[in-house]
Amino acid sequence: MANMMEEIKKRRTFAIISHPDAGKTTLTEKFLLYGGVINQAGSVKGKATARHAVSDWMDIEKERGISVTSSVLQFEYGGRCINILDTPGHQDFSEDTYRTLMAADSAVMVIDASKGVEAQTRKLFKVCAMRHIPVFTFINKMDREALDSFELLDQIEKELGIPTCPVNWPIGSGKRFCGVYDREHREIELFSGTMKGTRMGEVEKIAIDDPGLGSHVDEDQFEQLEEEIELLDGASAEFDQDLVDRGQLSPVFFGSALMNFGVDTFLNHFLMMTSTPLPRNSDMGVVDPMKEKDFSAFVFKIQANMNKAHRDRIAFMRICTGEFDAGMDAWHIQGGKKVRLSQPQQMMASDRRMIDKAYAGDIIGIFDPGIFSIGDTLSTSEEKFSYEGIPTFAPEHFARVRQVNTMKRKQFLKGVNQIAQEGAIQIFQEFNTGMEEIIVGVVGVLQFDVLKYRLENEYNVEIILESLPYEHIRWIENEDIDLDKISGTSDMKKIKDLKGRPLLLFINSWSVGMTLDRNEGLILSEFGRS
Ligand code: G4P
What we know:
single chain, alpha+beta, Rossmann fold, Elongation Factor Tu (Ef-tu), domain 3, Alpha-Beta Plaits, 3 domains, seven-stranded mixed beta sheet, 13 helices, 33 strands, globular, binds guanosine-5',3'-tetraphosphate
């Protein structure tokens, strides 16, 4: 027990969120370099090779050279056991990307200093904000021309609605980037263009009042820094761990992942400020990993078809309390049965490996004979409780879908329903029109291809997808609403999900506001309750 608690306290489980190209992969690679997992820069970044090896599972991935699946990287650093959850970002952005955030205890937000807050960051941040988890900001690419640093903070505060607290502050950017000023120690970490690729950037530090500073920082830059420090000390929020813990204040760091500058400073501060495995809500109240000794976990992702011949699935779960032993039995709450948790595996940078022990905070993938659904709880506790469900996240692309051969209706429905149950797509129907047609909603358009491919390959059903112009979906929170009475906009469409719950689709975002204005008391949500 004592040993188990020690192991749990060592865990730091976080996701890195960013817009594509902000530098998530490069930063992750530097973390792995520090953790000694890889010993050469570039091992993760060779997307065509390394990424491929991580998830060589679906033919579609091979064809396109991208990963549809996401993985977890685990390594030890500074006496801690770190789990980085990969949130797929390019074309492979999907609902799984959001779900992965449900398994994290904090998030690192990487922002490209020349671009500021971008669309995908905004979307992922919303999920972090909904969970109130701590968010740490790394403003990357300072070795390139950057936006004004105050402007960047302003964007984060205004667009994301979270106050910021800069831990360090950059001096110049691009060709004139000199380094960062450490506000706590009142010293400057000097940047040199030769740091790229070194394991630990050997950073030279110099006190702000050191007379030798002049040989590193030009006079005009120094004057500007002095002014900015004064402004910061007067105007920016003070560091407050309590606010950080509640996701109400984001510590901000500046650096360059590519040049390996500011990464160790970030990692060391981050590991001190981020939390150990967090308690989780359940139908029996809050379950705290520091107090409960029984094993418990919830499923946040299902990976289908890893072995085409067997239609195997892997259920990824986040361990919330206790200790996991390979092959152990646990109670599957939603299934109402005891199940054996077999073939447990974890993902490493370049391969999957079998494991025999894991602890609260860790993510494991378990062989799933087709019994698990997203959000399910597993536990060895005498008390049968279930963790709070995982919300349904708003799809942004919609299509009407039908089978080419009408004789194959049954297989078509079976396939569509099964794929929806795994969480790859969401399915809806027209509301009260009596039409049987199915509307599919996805977070990333690649999921349409996945659907088409899987229906053809696994269910032998060819389909036609007719894309619909809607981009915004809202769940109706009011219990007793008469949908016929809602007066919407001309671009609004009423639909229902498989449980018969009503939803609204809109083409334009402003129509959402307009519909709210026109219907007093109407409550719309971007997240669906599971
Ligand atoms: P992502 O995972 O967030 O999509 O971004 P990724 O790390 O792949 O980085 C995107 C591009 O930005 C890469 O260049 C990468 O080298 C570059 N980059 C990342 N961090 C920094 C930084 O701190 N400074 C500068 N100057 N560039 C940075 P690329 O040309 O697309 O790829 P590659 O040819 O370098 O592999």
